Amino acid sequence: MSKSDDISFNGGKRHLSEDKLMAYLEGRLSPEEQHEVELWLENEGMESDAVEGLMQIGAQETRHSVSRLNHKLRQQTSGKKRKRKYLKNDHWGWLAVAVVLLLAILAYIAIRYSIKVK
């Protein structure tokens, strides 16, 4: 199990491995290890609630959910970043900008001409 699969707590100073958490959920830990995890859960707010929820859905479903979430996260983080093209290759966008500028210039000339005529 790599460090990237560990669950950080206490400001990232200590880690709880995914394997240890799954063993806790399945009841495969020694009493000392179980006590250690329970002490950690006692000090953690959100993580404690999450583990309580995981205990209710069962270990097999938990493994499946974690695997599915990890897969989705890897897809999202390793995917190619979309390039923003804005008006780079947008010929209609450039045409619209040119038309607006042309109308602004014509309006300026018309206003200026109407002021001189009066």
Terminal-residue CA separation: 85 Å
Mean pLDDT across residues:
75
Radius of gyration: 30 Å
Can you summarize the main beta sheet?
2 strands, antiparallel
Following the backbone from N to C, one meets helices and strands in this order, namely EEHHHHH
**Number of separate domains:** 2
Summed up, the helix count is: 5
Question: Ranges with pLDDT <50 over ≥5 residues?
Answer: 8-12
Percent helix range? 55-70%
Gross morphology is rod-shaped
Strand order of the largest sheet: 1-2
- How many DSSP E strands? 2
- What percentage of the residues does DSSP assign to strands (E)? 5-15%
Task: Find the structural class using helix and strand composition.
Answer: mainly alpha
